[in-house]
Amino acid sequence: MFGLEKPAGQQEPGRSGGLPKMASVGGFNVLSSSIPATKVELSVSCRNLLDRDTFSKSDPICVLYTQAVGNKEWREFGRTEVIDNTLNPDFVRKFIMDYFFEERENLRFDFYDVDSKSPNLSKHDFLGQMFCTLGEIVGSQGSRLEKPIVGIPGKKCGTVIVTAEELGCCRDSVLMQFCANKLDKKDFFGKSDPFLVFHRSNEDGSFTICHKTEVVKNTLNPVWQAFKISVRALCNGDYDRTIKVEVYDWDRDGSHDFIGEFTTSYRELSRGQSQFNVYEVINPKKKGKKKKYVNSGTVTLLSFLIETEVSFLDYIKGGTQINFTVAIDFTASNGNPSQPTSLHYMNPYQLNAYGMALRAVGEIIQDYDSDKMFPALGFGARLPPDGRVSHEFALNGNPQNPYCHGIDGVMEAYYRSLKSVQLYGPTNFAPVINHVARYAASVKDGSQYFVLLIITDGVISDMAQTKESIVNASKLPMSIIIVGVGPAEFDAMEELDGDVVRISSRGRFAERDIVQFVPFRDYIDRSGNHVLSMARLAKDVLAEIPEQFLSYMRVRGIKPSPAPPPYTPPIHVLQTQI
């Protein structure tokens, strides 16, 4: 994601007033804001749940649902773990959500008593539910909301406590290595097979697992491999939070034997290798039973190295230019522009589907393009005067200079083209991808990055060539955003997106994922005339670009240039005559 910088003057989480109010997408400024969301982590606890089991207590699970922006359908967001035999669960598994200040995010928490391993919720006993909004949780005192569980008439179903914590913005990672000495022997025939489990403490005193080391076989003096973990995962940026480390002996059947534990904090670990970072491993049961018990071995920190993760914004601030190119699908499958059913319908009173998508997405991306000059191309049309078919023509009619000024300029050129060209085919993506790739291939030093925005109805004719073009482009400083308009099935576009299966061509896989596909219909109302959520659209259109950008820079070893110092106007000293 775009490293979420805190704007000046914004409240820290946990201070009065709950979480900060985030800027709306209207004031999208690349240097002061990023995606208009902050991430919050929701912790769920219940008290006095219904008891549905005869011989023991309920085995509860919590299932969270969110409501879609458009059709208001409830969609499952995630599930906690199941906790056996309790009516007062404190669930360890958290829900991490984006918090948009300007949006009402409806939530539904359902509770079930789990009776079998079936993932089908209808097979388990319903224990009730609670409805609220994310804003309600965040806005409660201490961002802690307590509400009764409802849904079973005539029964008291208990209460639920949901706590929100804003995830810190700390971008550091640490590289740590540990070893141990004289650990307790747990195996009958050999020595132990030890591994470490790290937990960070939560606001409510519970612990969340954040890292497991590998198992080192048959030794009481293991040296584990160095591992890297983000400071956010280790302690959420709070250097004094307790970190609990447990030592286990691995067993094949999964019933790992507990050797002992110790606690530390990021601040203690950051002292590095020293006498302060040799920890006694204590097994509380053994300590209680044996008078002469000293410890179950020691764990020593061998090294501690802090690495600051660079963000997308560090490169932008350092002067990297983002160049956007727009390519519009002018093929006949879109329908005749003179007919109201056409996605290219020239309606004098309102934008057509392409115009809406272009305006909405263009307004988001133009903030990231420094000169606001966009090459705008069309593909799949017959051009005047001779009717030749072109798969990369300039919308402004000037192939030597296809640049349009701002999204308004692109819109103007798009409508002018609609009046002069004939929608035709086939739908070939490869030529416009190769067009941008030629430019990207000429600037590989990290000073420029290219983004191609393709707006299409999703019917594609040159799938094999397009895959080949994407695999080749994955080595270049470029990304592709595909926005699908209209009601078609977008299976081919999902395949190009490569989130599920990395795209390949003739046995060669793409070096990195460079395609992001967004179906525009998910963001508009039923009439098709209004974007329901610019913030959500902005987030999903731009969601993968920063990571794609960073993956290119990392592989090439390109570091961001230092940001120029802020401009201070020269001070004119006024000479006053005495």
UniProtKB/TrEMBL annotation:
One of its GO terms (biological process) is cellular response to calcium ion. Gene3D superfamilies: C2 domain. Transmembrane segments: none annotated. GO terms for cellular component: plasma membrane. Residues 20-147, 156-279 form the C2 domain. GO terms for molecular function: calcium-dependent phospholipid binding; metal ion binding. Keywords: Calcium, Metal-binding, Phosphoprotein, Repeat. Residues 323-524 form the VWFA domain. The keyword Phosphoprotein applies. Belongs to the copine family. Probable calcium-dependent phospholipid-binding protein that may play a role in calcium-mediated intracellular processes. This is Copine-8. It comes from Machaerirhynchus nigripectus.
